[in-house]
Amino acid sequence: MITTVGGGVFGVVNASIAVLAGGDKDDKPGAAASPKPSPSDRPSGPGAGEGESSAEPNTRLTDCRNSTDQWNRLPEIPGAKDFAPMTQRVDFADINGDGRDDYLVVDAGTGAVRVWENRGTKSGAGFAWGPGSHLITATTLAPGREYVDFADVDGDGFDDHLVVNSENGSVRARKNHDGRLSGTEWKADAKALHKKGTNPGIVFADIDGDRRDDYLAFDLASGDVAALLGLFDRSGPRPDPEHLAQVVTVDLGEGERLAFHNVDCDSRADALISDENGPLRARMHLDHDGGGGLVWAEEKQIATGDELDRRTQYRDFADLDGDGRADSLWVNRTTGEVTPWLNRGGD
Ligand SMILES: [Ca+2]
Ligand SMILES: [Ca+2]
Ligand SMILES: [Ca+2]
Ligand SMILES: [Ca+2]
Predict the structure, then answer these.
(1) How far is CA 60 from the centre of its chain?
(2) Is 37 within 8 Å of 76 (Cβ atoms)?
(3) In this predicted structure, what is the pLDDT of residue 67?
(4) Counting ligands in written order, which one lies closest to the CA of residue 45?
(5) 284 CA to centre of ligand 1 in angstroms
(6) Which ligand is closest to the CA of 64, given by its number?
(7) Compositional bias (Polar residues) spans (predicted)?
(8) How far apart are the first and last CA of the chain?
(9) Is 120 left (phi over 0), alpha (psi -120 to 50) or beta?
(10) Calpha distance 130→247 (Å, rounded)
(11) From the CA atom positions of the chain, what is the Rg in Å?
């Protein structure tokens, strides 16, 4: 999933919106514990995968406790051997539906996607990965306008393959069945959010906690985030997705990115503001206000990011251990290597 919107990076990442700017410093989530970045397993392709069930709409995550270790740094995830940074990006999505996001390499030119199944980690050890394999060998993409993303738009627990048009906001979705992509392609225009002349950043996240990833459009100029809730269901595009004109407003500073992921113990996506200099701030999504609006907590820092090297790394998010909370990842732009920080409650 591409998680970031804002500055120049948008379109290359998955569930965040970002405004890139300068800064230097590292990004290390919170007061973090236990570094020991000894090299470990290498990502290698999707395997079978089981498929545990996930949280009920708007309920607390069953295994979620805000323990005291906050962010737990695990050994580095090696990048794919032949990773090509000029044309490829690292992404994470749950392809086999086991709740853990798998490691992907997406080629922006050919649309090819390789996947390495995330086989989990045991008590602080590094993650184990299946062998790399092609999920998709090619996808036709309009150069400069269309890009590949992944999100679970129909709520079945498998992240679906999306082609997003950044110019007009339309989405082509291919449903993921048991780790494979079916032949059926769904299309949604999302016109409600795309007025002529606007070009908002698009990300997908579950804003209402019903397990379906919703369509979010971030307008950098105003800071407003609008949404189409439930653009798809299990049978295809819905004719009347609920339009929320103002989900939340976020004022991004230079070098900051906005992303939406759940980081606490409910199942609703929270707003994450990542500073390239390191700090990570969040506005927790509390609930509906009863009048159709959403309630958000005040912004607070949830990670210091002290050691993030912004020259070589950027921050992304994915749920690597499958507990329902997004973990913080530092991705090396050149090698595709990832430093994972498991979310244990933040700062
Ligand atoms: Ca998985
Ligand atoms: Ca799905
Ligand atoms: Ca949340
Ligand atoms: Ca997690």
Answers:
(1) 20
(2) yes
(3) 63
(4) 1
(5) 25
(6) 4
(7) 59-71
(8) 25
(9) left
(10) 38
(11) 18
- Name the closest ligand to CA 284: 3
Tell me the C-alpha distance between 327 and 319, whole Å: 5
> Looking at the whole model, is its pTM more than 0.85?
no
Are β-strands 2-6 and 15-18 bridged in parallel, bridged antiparallel, or unpaired?
parallel
Q: CA separation (Å) from 80 to 39, 90, 105, 240, 336?
A: 13, 9, 8, 41, 7
Cα–Cα distance measured from residue 201 to residue 182, given in angstroms and rounded to the nearest whole number: 27
Q: What integer is the mean pLDDT of 178-196? A: 82
The alpha carbon dihedral of 98, 101, 104, 109 has a sign of positive
**150 near 136, Cβ under 8 Å?**
no
Q: Which ligand is located closest to the Cα atom of residue 325?
A: 4
Tokens representing 219 are 């307008």
CB 300 within 8 A of CB 282: yes
Q: Enter the DSSP assignment of 191.
A: G
Contact 181, 173 (CB under 8 A): no
Q: How far are the Cα atoms of 12, 100, 206, 304, 316 from residue 128, in angstroms, in the given order? A: 26, 12, 27, 27, 20
Residues 128 and 117 sit within 8 Å (Cβ to Cβ): no
The residue with tokens 């379906």 is 212
CA 134 to centroid of ligand 1, rounded, Å:
15
Could you tell me the distance, in angstroms and rounded to a whole number, from the CA of residue 296 to the centre of ligand 2? 27
**Averaged pLDDT for residues 318-335:** 96
Q: Please tell me the predicted confidence (pLDDT) of residue 234.
A: 86
Residues 6+ apart with CB under 8 A from 316: 3, 4, 13, 14, 16, 90, 92, 329, 330, 331
Q: Which ligand is nearest to the CA of 159?
A: 2
CA 206–ligand 3 middle distance (angstroms): 9
Specify the amino acid at residue 108.
Answer: A
**Phi/psi at 176 (5° precision):** -95, 115
Count of CB atoms situated within 10 Å of the CB of 253: 11
CA distance 4 to 199: 15
3-state helix, strand, coil in the chain (%, to 5): 0, 40, 60
